[in-house]
TrEMBL record:
A molecular-function term among this protein's GO annotations: ATP hydrolysis activity
SUPFAM superfamilies per the UniProt record, alphabetical: ABC transporter transmembrane region, P-loop containing nucleoside triphosphate hydrolases
Protein name per the record: ABC transporter ATP-binding protein
Ranges in coiled-coil conformation: none
Phylogenetic placement of the source organism: Bacteria, Bacillati, Bacillota, Bacilli, Bacillales
Annotated function: May be involved in multidrug export. Transmembrane domains (TMD) form a pore in the cell membrane and the ATP-binding domain (NBD) is responsible for energy generation.
Chief place where the protein resides: membrane
GO CC annotation terms, alphabetical: plasma membrane
């Protein structure tokens, strides 16, 4: 079972109404469009309602009693044709405007959802598979489009047609119209029962679809490892199990639709028609009942049940859309936001002095991964963080980059809390290079510039030269305009890292944060990187998380972390002399290199 399956919930009627109202609020900026749509839809329905009445007049007044002159008959035929044309035009316009409205609503919803995703903290992305996020922004919003384009249109049309049908039936015969009203409670009960079960089934189906997307994304991303370790059969079985679960949930939905939607409504409509015909048959023994009235009543009764049939057919789409919208809104309402700043507009980073003061931190609120961390990096100094996996090195980097909020202790830059600086100031002043750099689809130049609005090509080129990336870039077919495929897979890990270094230096940061930046680089590239790193660190405060100890021997201070505490600190020489944890790590790596 994936992490998602735990999210399966049943939406109550109140919750579904809340989701629907929230969706409808997206239509408020398009009030004029709504008015035009409703106007054209009303004209279309009025045209549809007038047709049976015209036919009724023709049957009763001309065919049966010949009370109409030829001119009146021609007038009826002309009116019939004009009304049909007007109905066709207004039907087209109403559908067009409503679907245009739906696309505008979903466009804005996707923009809002994506905007909210970018505001979420790293904890959300650590806990939520990317396939699930993609599913909510694509599959779930697509289901909402279907609701707007199909369901709401049919709902509006059904509402207006039902009212118009009853109005016309009351005009023809009040007693039969009142009799037809008796079927309304039965219809409401059927639809309520359907809603109760359908919301559960659709929610489960959507969750299984998210599981499918998550498994697909994970499998495609890790295809090299899958093939290297011969895991294809296992992945096929796991995917088959998830796919079977999705199939089972979908079949439950189909079975529910087959029982409670059109078949039930069709039987109810047939029963109502038989009852009305029987009533008119009995009434004919005591009163005159014209063929035109019977024809008109049957037509209006069909116009009463047909939109309900359409609505019931679209209820499955409606339920899917409500469930999908609730999932999208749940993601948008997620409170795992990125840390907020208590901004001091006058705060600027000038020197780059870093100080950690008694910082403790827990990811889950229970188990601390950092315990009372304190150290100082003076301007221009390099402080290296080393230690075994899980010792807390990356957590220190995550807190310093404000990926996670901390409550105990403080982190200071130039004597001011890191929380007092604006996000823009922090991002402009801190340059981050990760162990596995992310390269975007685009060009080499766009990856270095990252669409910075004022950065010139000369600055891009200067940054590439600074980190010794210029030579390999110029060997590419189009140089800096060389097209980069997804994640830069055509480049070696060293080349990707060089581009990431150039990207960082193009911003000319005051502080550098290197998260094992040379871990995946070959020896030849590492030599060039070390030369550029020396230039990069000059005049900049640097925090370097290091796995290869040979890369940080010249650091001004080395902090050795062990189980979330600073176990040792000092220069390379002093730590070697202590013959402690650092000494043992260094000896292990030295023996590994000799082997």
């Amino acid at each position: 079972m994936t992490r998602h399956t735990k999210e399966v919930i049943q939406l109550s009627a109140k919750e579904q109404l809340h989701v629907l109202l929230r969706l409808l609020r997206y239509t408020l900026p398009f009030k004029k469009l709504i008015v035009v749509s409703l106007l054209t839809l009303s004209i279309s329905i009025a045209a549809s309602m007038s047709i049976p009445y015209i036919v009724k007049v023709f049957i009763d007044e001309y065919l049966l009693h010949s009370r109409l002159s030829n001119q009146q008959v021609i007038g009826l035929l002309i009116a019939f044709i004009i009304i049909q044309i007007v109905g066709a035009i207004t039907t087209y316009l109403s559908v067009y405007y409503l679907e245009y409205l739906a696309l505008k609503v979903i466009q804005q919803l996707r923009i809002d959802a994506f905007h909210d995703i970018t505001r979420l903290g790293m904890a959300f992305f650590d806990e939520t598979p990317s396939g699930s996020i993609v599913s909510r922004l694509t599959n779930d919003t697509e289901a909402i489009i279907e609701m707007f384009t199909g369901v709401l249109t049919s709902f509006l049309q059904a509402f207006l047609m039902i009212i118009a049908s009853f109005v016309m039936m009351f005009v023809l015969d009040v007693r039969v119209a009142l009799f037809a009203l008796l079927f309304v409670p039965v219809i409401i009960v059927i639809l309520a029962c359907y809603r109760k079960f359908a919301s559960v089934y659709f929610n489960e189906t959507r969750q299984r679809l998210s599981d499918l997307n998550a498994k697909l994304a994970e499998s495609i991303e890790g295809m090299k490892i899958i093939q290297v370790f011969n895991q294809q059969q296992r992945l096929r079985e796991e995917f088959g199990a998830i796919n079977a679960a999705h199939y089972d949930k979908s079949m439950k939905t189909i079975q529910l639709d087959s029982l409670m939607l059109r078949p039930a409504m069709t039987m109810l409509a047939t029963f109502a028609t038989v009852m009305i015909l029987g009533y008119f048959g009995i009434l004919s023994f005591s009163e005159t009942v014209t063929a035109g009235v019977i024809y008109a009543f049957i037509q209006y009764m069909q116009r009463f049940f047909e939109p309900i049939n359409q609505v019931s057919q679209n209820l499955n789409i409606f339920q899917q859309a409500i469930v999908s919208a609730s999932r999208v809104f749940k993601m948008m309402d997620n409170e795992t936001h990125a840390p907020t700043q208590q901004e001091d507009e006058t705060a600027t980073i000038q020197q780059g002095r870093i100080e950690f003061k008694n910082v403790s931190f827990s990811y889950d609120g229970t188990h601390d991964v950092l315990h009372d961390i304190s150290f100082v990096a003076e301007p221009g100094q390099t402080v290296a963080l080393v230690g075994h996996t899980g010792s807390g090195k990356s957590t220190i980097a995550n807190l310093f980059m404000r990926f996670y909020e901390f409550e105990r202790g403080d982190i200071l830059i130039d004597g001011k809390s890191i929380k007092s600086y604006s996000q823009q100031t922090l991002k402009q002043s801190i340059g981050l290079v990760l162990q596995d750099p992310f390269i975007f689809y685009g060009t080499v130049a766009s990856n270095i510039r990252l669409y910075h609005p004022t950065m010139t090509f000369e600055q891009v080129e200067a940054a590439a030269k600074f980190v010794h990336a210029h030579d390999f870039i110029m060997q590419l077919s189009d140089g800096y305009e060389h097209q980069v495929i997804e994640q830069g897979r055509a480049f070696s890990s060293g080349q990707r890292q060089l581009i990431a270094f150039a990207r960082t230096m193009a911003m000319d940061p005051k502080i550098l944060l290197l998260d094992e930046a040379t871990a995946n680089i070959d020896s030849e590239t590492e030599e060039a990187i070390q030369k550029s790193l020396a230039k990069m660190r000059h005049g900049r405060t640097t925090l370097a998380i290091a796995h290869r100890l040979s890369t940080i021997q010249d650091a001004d201070q080395i902090l050795v972390l062990n189980k979330g505490v600073i176990a040792e600190r000092g220069t390379h020489e002093t730590l070697i002399a202590q013959r402690g944890i650092y000494y043992n790590l260094y000896q292990l790596q030295l023996r590994g290199e000799l082997l």
